[in-house]
Amino acid sequence: MRVNSDLQKDVQNAIRWEPSLNETEIGVTAKDGIVTLSGTVDSFWKKSQAEEAAKNTAGVKAVVEKIEVKPGNGSFKKEDSEIAAEVLNAFKWNLVVPSDKIKIKVEKGWVTLDGELQWNYQREAARNAVSNLLGVTGVSNNIKIKSVTQDEIEKKDIESALARNWSLQDLDIQVKVSGTKVTLTGNVESWYQKNEAGRIAWNAPGALSVDNELIIDYQFELAD
User: What top-level class would CATH report for the domain 74-145?
Assistant: First the structure.
């Protein structure tokens, strides 16, 4: 049985291992597999990196993210108009993102993305392109998926794709299809497996939404 303090140390070490992060800026607490991150960083990218580091730590079942983004002076501090121009430029040079389908709003460094795209990987690429920009304090990805394919979602195809993935082969993941919606239920052992299963489901032709209800169930218990 592991104690909460061990999980806290593991997450702190995971954050320390990331070269872009300063461990002294980020506070970590752990309770029953729930990790809370706090503190202040100077970019949204660092905030996202800290969250990913915590999620990928064995034993973490949920992350409560309370990190604030406060851009510093100089090159980090940008006007909203500058950020908007940089977002447009980032989309222009990204072959995956159809920039003509996306509307952008920037308010106090917070970027909101709207529009309709055909694939979820395009939506994720748009968010990632924005997250890397200096001066961005947050991202709201409101882009909707509107597939042009008329194919019905094949449940067996999704199940086969999940079974082919090395990290998901021995897991009991249930797939439910209702119209254009895919729902995943069952237990996995890590955030990586949960995210990977969701990514695979999103790749199904005709999928307009994926409800990822997979539960992260580690093979050990946490105690005080």
Answer: alpha beta
pTM, to two decimals: 0.78
d(CA 83, CA 69): 15
Domain 155-219 class? alpha beta
Every domain of the chain and the residues it spans: 2-69, 74-145, 155-219
Domain spanning 2-69, CATH architecture: 2-Layer Sandwich (3.30)
pLDDT in tens, the chain (224 residues): 568 899 999 999 999 999 989 989 999 999 988 999 999 998 999 999 999 999 999 888 889 999 999 887 555 578 999 999 999 999 999 999 998 999 999 999 999 999 999 999 999 999 999 998 989 999 999 999 987 766 678 899 999 999 999 999 889 899 999 989 999 999 998 899 999 999 999 999 888 999 999 998 876 555 55
